[in-house]
Amino acid sequence: MSVRFLALAYAVTLLVLLGGTVCWSAPWQLELDAASFSRYLLMDPQGNGLQPPEVHLLPRIRETHRLGGQGWVEYDFSVPTTGWYELRITRGESLSDHDFFIDGEVHVYGGFQGKISNVWLTEGDHVLRAQRYTWTGLAGIAGFTLVKSDDSLAQSLRVQVVPD
Question: Does this model's pTM top 0.70?
Answer without folding.
Answer: yes
